[in-house]
Amino acid sequence: MNAGRAILKTMEFSHELDVLHNYITQSKMPVRKSDSFDKQVILLEEAQGESAFHSTYKKMKKVNLLSGLFALPVLLVVAIAAIYGRYINRGYDVFGYFMDHPVLYIVPAALIVVTLALALYHSALRRKLYGRIYPELKRKLGMNAA
Questions:
Q1: What distance in Å separates the CA atoms of residue 123 and residue 67, rounded to the nearest whole number?
Q2: Fewer CB atoms inside 10 Å of the end CB: C or N, the chain?
Q3: First CA to last CA across the chain, in angstroms?
Q4: Residue-wise pLDDT tens digits, 97-144
Q5: How would DSSP label each residue in 4-17?
Q6: How far is CA 91 from the centre of its chain?
Q7: How far is residue 19's CA from residue 124's CA, in Å, rounded to a whole number?
Q8: CA separation, residue 21 to residues 10, 51, 57, 120, 135 (Å)
Q9: How confident is the model at residue 63 (pLDDT cuts 50, 70, 90)?
Q10: What is the signed CA dihedral for 140, 144, 145, 146, rounded to 10 degrees?
Q11: Which residues contact 129 (CB under 8 A, 6 or more apart)?
C-alpha cells in the first residue's frame, strides 16, 4: 500500500469514527466513546448484543500475528546469510551452501507460501470486516451509509 492510500484510509477511518461519535451523542446511546475506530465499533456492536465484528476482528489480528511469526524465521535466515557472506567471510559462497543443503531453501520457501496464504486470508477477513459487517451494523443502527 502506498503512502497516499494509507493516508486516505486513515482519513476515512477518522471520518467514520466522527460519524459514530455523532450517532452516539445524538441517539444518547449508553456507549462510551473510544478514540479507536475498531474499538468503537466493537462497543456499539456489544450494545446491540452482537459479536460478528469483534470475532472477525480478533481472527484478523491472530492471522496477522501468525503471518509475522511464519515470516520471521525466513527473515532471520536471509539476514544471517547476507551478513555472513558480506561481512564475516567474504570469500564464502553462501548461495552454493544453500544449494547444497535443500532444507535451507525448502523450509523458508514453505514458510513464505504459508505467509502468503495467511496474507490472503487476512485480506479476505479485512474486506469482510469493513466491507460487509461494518456496513451491516450501520444499517441495523439506522445510520445512513457514509
A1: 12
A2: N
A3: 23
A4: 888 888 888 998 999 999 999 999 999 999 999 999 999 999 999 886
A5: HHHHHHHHHHHHHH
A6: 41
A7: 25
A8: 16, 20, 20, 32, 16
A9: very high
A10: -140
A11: 53, 56, 57, 60
| CA 39 to centroid of chain Cα atoms | 15
Place of cell 489480528: 61
The amino acid that residue 24 corresponds to is I
CA of 134: how far to CAs of 35, 79, 146, in Å? 17, 40, 11
Res 146: pLDDT:
46
Q: Where are the alpha helices (DSSP H) in the chain?
A: 3-27, 37-47, 52-83, 94-100, 103-128, 134-141
Residue 32's identity, in one-letter code, is: R
3-state DSSP call for residue 129? helix
